[in-house]
Amino acid sequence: MGHLAFETGHIGLNVTDLERSRKFYTEIFGFEILRESSTGEKQFAFLGHEGKPVLTLWKQSQGTFPRQSPGLHHLSFQADSIEQVKEAEIRLRRWKTNFQYDGVVPHAEGAQSGGLFFEDPDGIRLEIFAAEGAGCNPAPVHDGPTCGFF
Predict the structure, then answer these.
(1) C or N terminus of the chain, fewer CB within 10 Å?
(2) pTM of the model
(3) What average pLDDT score do residues 53-78 get?
(4) Does residue 98 contact residue 45 with C-beta atoms inside 8 Å?
(5) Distance between CA atoms of 71 and 54, rounded to whole angstroms?
(6) For 123-142, what is each residue's pLDDT tens digit?
(7) What domains sit in the chain, N to C, each tagged with a CATH number?
(8) Neighbours of 94 (CB within 10 A)
């Protein structure tokens, strides 16, 4: 059997309020709604770009995301530029988002890559980063990667 290579197809998240989460992800990330059902028992939204699903939201949970349980640590989304990251920060501040660190920070001391580390409305940890442009700021964590959410 040869070497297998896989790409992420899409990511599915359980949410407590489908309308709120759909609005958050479309406003912050610019996702388009590809398909949705917001009535009845089976409520979901498929979000993506150019017809390709990136994120699916499923109204199948209550409470907030349990960090102490095994599973998802955080989701990371790459922007084309640090300017796009800063534009996302403006939108996130309008949402009164809970940030892990204040503003754009590098992935590690001296790294040029970095971005924003924050939570969605259900407490799921997220990152928006760019490959360059964050190195002018100090790293908030000195003994581990910033994306560790330590």
Answers:
(1) N
(2) 0.92
(3) 92
(4) no
(5) 19
(6) 999 999 999 999 988 999 98
(7) 7-61 (3.10.180.10), 74-142 (3.10.180.10)
(8) 10
